[in-house]
Amino acid sequence: MLRRVAGCLGAGLALGVMTNLAQGWLPGSWYQIADSGAAWSAVAFVAGALLADRGVRVAAVGGLAAELGLVTGYYGFAEFGRGGMGMLTPVLVWLVMAVVAGPLFGAAGAWWRRGDRRRRIVGGGALAGAIGAEAACYAFVLHYMPQACVSAALMVALPLAMARGNHERALTLVAAVPLALCAYVVVYQDFLGSVLA
User: Fold this and answer.
1) pLDDT at res. 28
2) How far apart are CA 139 and CA 75, in angstroms?
3) What residues contact residue 94 under an 8 Å CB cut-off, 6+ apart?
4) CA separation for the pair 80, 97 (Å, rounded)
5) Which among 100, 101, 108, 107 has a CA at the least distance from the CA of 159?
6) Which residues contact 177 (CB under 8 A, 6 or more apart)?
7) In the chain, what are the domain boundaries?
8) What is the pLDDT of residues 152-165, one digit of tens each?
9) Distance, CA of 165 to CA of 18 (rounded, Å)
10) Which of 16, 61, 122, 135 could form a disulfide bond with 152, CB atoms 3.0-4.6 angstroms apart?
11) Is 98 exposed, middle or buried (0-12, 13-18, 19+ CB in 10 A)?
12) What is the mean pLDDT of residues 168-196?
């Protein structure tokens, strides 16, 4: 188990560095995609799905390790590869987000892969909902409409691609909508709005 969790941490570190680099590669406001909380949540989700055979608790720890690796890799590269990460506040904000989102999305990934039908729907809906919340942030907070449209399309496409059968696809998409609204209000309006104001 420890080796697999360490693998999640290592993958998170590497992907954290890659997201930092990708911000310099992507044109215009598209750099936001590399700095995406939903993309980082997807990493924790994948870690949880890969660890699903070890149980939900191990999957949650794997998701946490992946998220902590992402934050460490991203800001470590900013500090040592780019000559300084700036203020400490964003690091602390992302660490808090990692501690909350990592286990949640790790467990969601395990539920999606190995859970009963209800848990598969909630797990897949959670990932699609995170992407939907980011679509709302792009549209209503940042006013990046092309990125909002891409994220909204992904929110719809993921349940269609990931769910098993048409009925489960429909239910996963239905579950994603309130989860997206809830995540948008809690994360982007309440938490980040108060911390970054």
Assistant:
1) 74
2) 27
3) 71, 74, 75
4) 23
5) 108
6) 129, 132
7) 1-115, 117-197
8) 999 999 999 998 99
9) 35
10) 135
11) buried
12) 85
Look up tokens 């750099």; give the residue: 31
Residue 190 has pLDDT above 80, yes or no: no
Written as six digits, the tokens of 89 are: 């506040």
The DSSP secondary structure of the chain, one letter per residue, reads -HHHHHHHHHHHHHHHHHHHHHHHHS-GGGHHHHT-HHHHHHHHHHHHHHTGGG-HHHHHHHHHHHHHHHHHHHHHHHHHTSS----SHHHHHHHHHHHHHHHHHHHHHHHHHHS-HHHHHHHHHHHHHHHHHHHHHIIIII--HHHHHHHHHHHHHHHHHHSSSHHHHHHHHHHHHHHHHHHIIIIIIIIHHHH--
- Residues whose CB is less than 8 angstroms from the CB of residue 160 and which lie 6 or more positions away in sequence, other chains included: 169, 173
Other beta carbons less than 10 A from residue 56's beta carbon: 20
Segment 21-51, tens digit of pLDDT: 888 788 876 777 777 889 999 999 999 999 9
Q: Are 101 and 154 in contact (CB under 8 A)?
A: no
Question: Which amino acid, 150?
Answer: V
Q: Rounded distance, CA 191 to CA 130, Å?
A: 15
